[in-house]
Amino acid sequence: MSNILILGAGRVGATVAEQLVYEQHNVTIVDDNPANLAPLTSKLDLRVVAGSASSPTTLREAGAADAELLLAVTPTDELNMVACKIAYQMFRVPTRIARIRNADLLAHEDLFSEEDGFAISHTITPAQVVTDYLTRLVKMPEALQVLDFANGLVQLVVTRVTEGAPMAGKPLTAFNEVLPNTDRRVVGIYRNNRYIRPDGDSELHAGDEVFVLAESRQMRKVIGALHVVESPIKNVLLAGGGNVGYRLAKALQKDYSVKLVEADPGRAEWLANELPGALVLHGDATNETMFEAEQIHRTDMYLALTSDDEDNIMSALLARQMGARKVISIINRSRYVDLLQDSRIDVAISPAQLTIGTLLAHARQGDIAAVKPLRRGAAEAVELVVHGTKNVSRVIGRRVDEIRMPAHAFLATIVRAGKVIMVHHDTVIEPDDRCIVFVHDKLRTREVEHLFAVKLGFF
């Protein structure tokens, strides 16, 4: 259990606080607006402090002297930076994470150093996290989720089995015949929202939601065995030219035909100057006439990226009704995401849920390289680095079938010295292996982290 101090009770701060309280950490959250704190105290077991994140007095009152981790996620980059500096210089908080949105600041890493800068241990840019995630979905339209591990060497992809796919109606053992030279590991099957732990005899049905791990360079072939291959995305229409819309258009404009719709005329003019490879339109994405004029029926992928959940939902549903092939919507309210994920919107994304994995990796026990929420946070995939020797580790030097994994936890893949190894019962864990574990029930994640952490006394 860690003492964690969160500065900023906005969407990201509140979502992270809820998750950390759920994991039984001691959480204190600071915000200068008491109205932002009131809803948290009524539903979460945490401490709140009203005050400025850059005030030494406020930080002292919030327990900075005893904090092991500080998350500065206020809406202002400069405030987050100053808070980290004060937390380090006055209270020696060991780990300090700041949300930084300004690309100009991010380009100067020396600003974040402990010696001469603002003493920021790690920076996080939610808009870039979301942009990278959406870019992967554009490149792999058959997927519901695409997650990278081990610096991009391994991917976990979630897809639905479709009628006519090579693996539809077959047991998992048939993978060896369908893809004889491609190693992969199915770590989870969900049928009618019920989890099925996969084994060789598990038969895949059309409509099943399948979680599969493979080398990134092999993943497209693996997906082709589960889902009838769709034609590549060519025409993309984005609604909303905010931080995410701008970054995504910039990332896609060289390889795709990109249109971006922005309601604010001044912002639209700025975007047009900054995005020479995209067509920027001033208009309302909930307007049926605009969709007709832009031939939405010829659009391969429509992404609703405004800051208004209702507008995103309505425009995505309208785009689908008018013929867009695939629709994706950003939804900030997590309850909306649960309602819409299996509707006519192909993928509903919570930016806060995407961001939280990056933050959780620093709050967990052991050497956690990545935490990736799945199924709207109900499940997780965790990348752990194992250290030590057989004497101080519960896993090093042991075969996989000798390791007592918690129920609903699935050790699937190891990356060893840049080589991807799909785990078998006789695979032996070695020091510095990067182990990727799928956990169906995130309540069991702590048990997994404890299992892979070195025993007390190693350091």
Structure description:
It is a single chain. The chain is globular, with a radius of gyration of 23 Å. The model has no long low-confidence stretch (mean pLDDT 90). With 459 residues, the protein is α/β, with parallel strands linked by helices. The protein has 15 helices and 22 strands. The strands form four sheets. It has a six-stranded parallel beta sheet with strand order 3-2-1-4-5-6, with helices on both faces. Strands 14-13-12-15-16-17 form a six-stranded parallel beta sheet, with helices on both faces. The protein has helices at residues 11-22, 34-43, 56-61, 77-91, 103-106, 126-139, 175-178, 219-226, 243-252, 265-274, 288-293, 309-321, 334-340, 351-360, 445-452, and strands at 3-7, 26-31, 47-50, 69-72, 95-99, 122-124, 143-149, 154-160, 184-191, 194-196, 209-215, 235-239, 257-262, 279-282, 301-304, 326-330, 347-349, 368-374, 379-385, 409-416, 419-422, 434-439. This is Trk system potassium uptake protein TrkA. Residues 144-228, 369-454 form the RCK C-terminal domain. Residues 1-124, 233-349 form the RCK N-terminal domain. InterPro entries: K_uptake_TrkA (IPR006036), NAD(P)-bd_dom_sf (IPR036291), RCK_C (IPR006037), RCK_C_sf (IPR036721), RCK_N (IPR003148), Trk_Ktr_HKT_K-transport (IPR050721).
List the helices and strands and how they pair.
Blueprint: E1 3-7, H1 11-22, E2 26-31, H2 34-43, E3 47-50, H3 56-61, E4 69-72, H4 77-91, E5 95-99, H5 103-106, E6 122-124, H6 126-139, E7 143-149, E8 154-160, H7 175-178, E9 184-191, E10 194-196, E11 209-215, H8 219-226, E12 235-239, H9 243-252, E13 257-262, H10 265-274, E14 279-282, H11 288-293, E15 301-304, H12 309-321, E16 326-330, H13 334-340, E17 347-349, H14 351-360, E18 368-374, E19 379-385, E20 409-416, E21 419-422, E22 434-439, H15 445-452
Parallel strand pairs: 1-2, 1-4, 2-3, 4-5, 5-6, 12-13, 12-15, 13-14, 15-16, 16-17
Antiparallel strand pairs: 7-8, 8-11, 9-10, 9-11, 18-19, 19-22, 20-21, 20-22
Helix pairs in contact: 1-14, 6-9, 6-14
Domain RCK C-terminal: 144-228, 369-454
Domain RCK N-terminal: 1-124, 233-349
InterPro entries: K_uptake_TrkA (IPR006036), NAD(P)-bd_dom_sf (IPR036291), RCK_C (IPR006037), RCK_C_sf (IPR036721), RCK_N (IPR003148), Trk_Ktr_HKT_K-transport (IPR050721)
